[in-house]
Amino acid sequence: SSETFWTTTGMFPQEFIIAFPKCVKISKVAIQCYLVRTLRIERSTSQEPVGFEQCVEK
């Protein structure tokens, strides 16, 4: 919810990593943003945040 969570790094490119304790199926991602040129969503099935593969780029 935009009322309960807000993040910004103030510099470019910006990166945000979310980790789950085990593999989960995500069927929908909602993002609210302003003046974003490109948005890319990637995933990794590794225990560490490495080996990402691109899911979508808009």
Automatic annotation (TrEMBL):
Organism: Jacana jacana
GO biological process: intraciliary transport
Protein name: IFT25 protein
Gene expressing this chain: Hspb11_0
UniProt cross-references to InterPro entries, sorted A to Z: Galactose-bd-like_sf, IFT25
Any one cellular-component term (Gene Ontology): intraciliary transport particle B
